[in-house]
Amino acid sequence: xxxxxxxxxxxxxxxxVAAPVAAATALADPIPSPIPVSNTRIALKPVxxxxxxxxxxxxxPGDHDHLYIADQGGQIWQVxxxxxxxxTLVADLSARLVSDLAKVIPGLPYDERGLLGLAFDPGYKHNxxxxxxxxxxxxxxxxxxxxxxxxxGGGQTVIAQWKVRNARAEHPVVDPSTRRELxxxxxxxxxxxxxxIAFGPDGKLYIAIGDGGAADDQGPxxxxxxxxxxxxxxxxxxxxxxxxxxxxxxxNGQYGIPRSNPFVGREGADEIWAYGFRNPYRFSFDSRSGxxxxxxxxxxxxxxxxxxxxxxxxxxxxxxxSFLFDNGGDGPGxxxxxxxxxxxxxxxxxxxxxxxxPGGTRCGGxxxxxxxxxxxxxxxxxxxxxxxxxxxxxxxxxxxxxxFAQPLGRLFVNKGSAVTSxxxxxxxxxxxxxxxxxxxYVLGNxxxxxxxxxGTVLRITRP
Length: 463
Known about the structure:
CATH topology: Neuraminidase
Number of domains: 1
Shape: globular
Oligomer: single chain
Number of helices: 1
Helix content: under 10%
Strand order of the largest sheet: 1-21-17-16-15
CATH class: Mainly Beta
Order of helices and strands: EEEEEEEHEEEEEEEEEEEEEEEEEEEEE
Structural class: mainly beta
CATH superfamily: TolB, C-terminal domain
């Protein structure tokens, strides 16, 4: 594990220094030091069970007693954080999702698409509005595409607005007739969707979009140099977007473009807030500082966490973490040399870790799963609760699993210049949620895929 600065204190700068000459061979063990075990002890208390694959959670303004959980298969659940009442169904959007969901890999119900994001409007108490990020079957008229006239193999990412029938009801229910589509984006492949949506402290809606899928940001639907680096008109893949759902000055008239967006009037889509991402799967805003912290899922070597600032370039696929990246031609890509601060104009992560086990053995290449650091970072939150005093003010995040074959998720905490591992949760980690009191919840299941009913929401508490 390498930590460049504490997330709670991070102030990101772009460093311009002379570019080194990249090595031609892959690094066997990019970050040799293992992640140490934390001396902070926690417990994990179930507050909801019987889900399939819960991926993210949100809070509704005015509701202090519930989380709203997005299950990847299309359901939105209201969960009582006090554990006093069973979960209730808010919406079932499964009929809107891609028809080949969990059918891409024969015999394995693994998919990175589905219902991936959920956010409540800041004015929800009065207008009853919420927003979703879904993967849907393609229509002929996307708002953004890198393959004009070609049916996208991964379907389309859709951001939509919905209204509940009574926002002040104890158990609100979405009215399906109120759906309003904000934007539709072609997805070349089924993976690297991003998926998080959230309102920032500025009241604008932020949207994480992956590079389009496949590997190395190349292949059908990927432009030369990678979608994540492209500022061509219509290319929003590999970006974090920022929009105003209540405005109408976008090209399709369904949402607003804030004039303070960094690419308004410049090369690049007006919606872009930052770029250079492979799969910014989960992000959060620190409720105290307002910083936007993104967990950026890496390729074969490096997982990273970024503090995101407007207009900045976070490197992919020029770099993976702070390392130079070689796309490997027709083979798998790999990292070559560690190159912090170079090439000029790229922002390095605030922390990163690699996939290799101690001694340099690759996860999945002979190392036992229990020795692996992780394979896919899951962004979390800066803890602002009161139950676990040792976590206050520190960034808590996780990893999907130590290995693909076994659902062995991980939990980490960043304190100052150190990252340490917390108690393993016993599930594959899909996401996190934070309630109105600042307490944190871990979301996942024991299958690691979109199947079964072992999906659970676990509250992080003191032992």
